[in-house]
Fold this protein.
Amino acid sequence: MVKNNTWIIIVLKTLLQDFFPLQQKTEINRSKNRKGFPVIRLGVLLVILFLTHGFFTGYPNPAIGEENIRKAILAGTWYPKDKNALEKSIQGYLSGATVEAPKGRIRAIIVPHAGHRYSGQVAAYAYSRLQGMVVKRVVMIGPCHRFGFKGASVNLQKGYQTPLGIVPVDQACAKELIDAGHHINWIPQAHAREHSLEIQLPFLQIALGEFQIVPILMGAQDLKTCTDLAQVLVQTIKNRDHTLILASTDLSHFHTYDQAKALDERFIKYVLDFDPEGLAHALSDGVVEACGGGPVITTLLSGKALGANRAVGLRYANSGDVTGDHKRVVGYFSAILLEKQ
């Protein structure tokens, strides 16, 4: 972010004067003014607008402060702001997730990312399986809802803050990912207001205790982007023991209760069949819906390459099950990817 934006305003004012000449200019001057040179200036203007997008759209600098910590933006709205209340809430969700755990090594999880009130109980079925595991780092992959870009962005800040404390970022692993993938960058604006990763952290903090994270957001979610990211990810973490991959996604949005269930059942079948390519084509064709389809595809590809050979669905529900409103619902699903001997 530019610290002093005065020069931007001056340049824009100068450029705009060429596009909108003063009324007293003659037609000859106007004609001259429209030839060639203003076109070049238009290009300059567009470049400036692109480079300063964060300034004009009001995105804050997520690195403000010497500590370079990504502050919590959801506390008090999407989940409790008070530490004790948040701990009690998470423990309540975890205690309510009572399904027999399948045997095998958990390589990855798939969890929803709505406010805890709506999808927390569904997410808890996956997080409850992590309790007692030794996990040193969690590679978190989510969609970017608020900022458009190509490829993927890995956060290089020192940590993420929640009411339960600061979760450190594995900056060495994050930098290695960026260096290894030409389509992988660090785009601060993408992470500044995104909810799909932060919403997971309180669950991880309660379930795992101490761990590091590698926060990844996907701007594009096509199969090629997913495949490229998965290949780089596997090469980066294959020799880093005790690493878990997390895919953050909700399913269909704003259909009726019955329509949502039909759409979501198709999505879930592709996951349980361990078919990332089929899921990618179904998403592209509109046969299924998920805002984090790309993170799920990437996780399926990465999990398979790292030894996972079974996907287990744990819980499905939608917002209608919580609110009672069945007219416009959002689907939620949790699953684990296992390496079963």
Observations:
- The domain at 69-339 is CATH 3.40.830.10 (Protocatechuate 4,5-dioxygenase; Chain B).
- The CA atoms of residues 58 and 189 lie 10 Å apart.
